[in-house]
Amino acid sequence: MELLENRIREDAEVLPGNILKVSNFLNHQIDVKLMDQMGEEFARLYKDTPVTKILTIESSGIAVAYSVAQKFGVPLVFAKKHKSSNVNEDVYSAKVWSFTHNQEYTVVVSKKYISSCDKILLVDDFLANGAALNGLIKIVGDAGAKVQGICIAIEKGFQNGGKELREKGFRVESLAIVDKMTDDGKIQFRA
Fold this sequence. Notes:
Elements: H1 2-11, E1 13-15, E2 19-21, H2 23-27, H3 32-45, E3 53-57, H4 62-72, E4 76-79, E5 91-98, E6 103-110, E7 119-127, H5 131-143, E8 146-156, H6 161-167, E9 172-181, E10 187-189
Parallel strand pairs: 3-4, 3-7, 7-8, 8-9
Antiparallel strand pairs: 1-2, 5-6, 9-10
Helix pairs in contact: 3-4
């Protein structure tokens, strides 16, 4: 998606450790017009795919997932990173390693919100090593539901997450795939 690639070129920062900081438009401050256009693009890409729910992990994926859910007219469910007092029912859970926070989380989704009848699109802001998405895939599988596809705003193509998910047979649609980043701020996108 040229619009997103241009926004990354203009406003993103490359930090040491292969970190792409997009806080000023994607995951700290949200550009709602950009989110709307991203949701439209995912709806176009999956227009012939039956979808009953959108699933993401809190918190950075929620804005993108909301936009996708709105375009499909289906509920958005997000996995919480910690079971809390307001999630007191039975849950599906998965362990997920966060590259950004350098820690493991147990993410949970109430069994009330996903059933074996659901056809689910997974949505996230970033795809690097695939840990978050593999956790969501486990949760969907534990519920007996079906993953219909995976929607990613920005994929780090130089890491193996996207490649491995595609090799497992999942349809992964990324709006921007970064093939290379350098510490001096240069970003190369996949053609």
